[in-house]
Amino acid sequence: MTRDETYEIEPIAHIRTPFPEKFGIPRQSGLVTEAKGTIVFEPKYRDPDALRGIEGFSHLWLIWGFSENAGKQWSPTVRPPRLGGNTRVGVFATRSPFRPNPIGLSLVALEEVRHTEKYGDVLIVSGADLMDQTPVYDIKPYLPHIEAVPDAAAGFAGRVKDYALKVSCPDELLYKLPEEKREALLAVLSEDPRPSYQNDEMRVYGFGFAGYEIKFRVKGDTLLVEKVEKLS
Questions:
Q1: Whole-angstrom distance, CA of residue 60 vs CA of residue 30
Q2: What does DSSP say about strands 134-141 and 59-65: parallel, antiparallel, or unpaired?
Q3: Deepest in the core among 64, 72, 78, 143, taking most CB within 10 A?
Q4: Model confidence pLDDT, tens digit, residues 176-208
Q5: Given a cut of 90, is residue 69 above it in pLDDT?
Q6: Which among 8, 34, 29 has a CA at the least distance from the CA of 142?
Q7: What is the CB neighbour count within 10 angstroms for residue 75?
Q8: Are the beta carbons of 81 and 89 closer than 8 angstroms?
């Protein structure tokens, strides 16, 4: 026996991150712990009582929306980037954004509950894999004694968990970034932002990061940064 039910949900907050576009966002939460995000609550949810006790948790689950994919058609099979972009697996065996319901789940570290005059209490988090201004629908504490399973099987994802590129970035380019953003950029680049099906060593790729345009190419297992310029 089944029932067709439709629920309406609304954002309780939006997150601010260094990633203005999908290109360059870490493929999973927790991969780039150096990248910080700020969760700003919507006015109706800025009651400080709603956050009472949250500072006691080191990590939080974020339930959020793939806002850039809303309304796009889903497919029962997808091509995970870490399998080279040519192998298809079932969408429910992946974390692909192209899903029947465009909902994401990310585990982030809670760095600080910070009070601001303009937005009330905000949450400073690290390790987020969300685009700037992504809607957040709910926040739940991570419970390690229940949710951590050290011997859990990781399927095909376990075969590529140690994948990383070497990053070569001249100091004169790296130092154009504010000091607090440098390690985060290097970590993002080491995760290889390229689409999985592109491996042309002469191709130059570009993306926005924390208000800067980053240009790079990849030769073998080394990523070479060629340009860092502040966006106007």
A1: 11
A2: antiparallel
A3: 64
A4: 999 999 999 999 999 898 876 677 889 999 999
A5: no
A6: 29
A7: 14
A8: no
Residue 37 to residue 56: CA distance in whole angstroms = 19
CA 118 to chain centre: 25
Phi, psi (degrees; rounded to nearest 5) at 188: -60, -45
Token duo for residue 26: 């870490």
Closest CA to 185 of 37, 19, 16: 19
Q: What is the pLDDT of residue 161?
A: 58
Q: Which of these, 64, 145, 48, lies nearest to 107 by C-alpha position?
A: 64
d(C-alpha 230, C-alpha 214), whole Å: 9
Question: Distances in Å between the alpha carbon of 85 and those of 78, 162, 172, 197?
Answer: 9, 18, 34, 5
pLDDT in tens, 17-58: 999 998 899 888 888 999 899 999 999 999 999 999 999 999
Both tokens assigned to 179: 């000091």
158: left (phi over 0), alpha (psi -120 to 50) or beta: alpha
Tokens representing 167 are 């990053």
Measured between alpha carbons, how far is 121 from 50 in angstroms, rounded to an integer?
10
Which residue's structure tokens are 């493929």?
A: 27
pLDDT of residue 232: 78
DSSP 3-state of 163: coil
Report whether 219 contacts 201 (CB < 8 A). Answer: yes
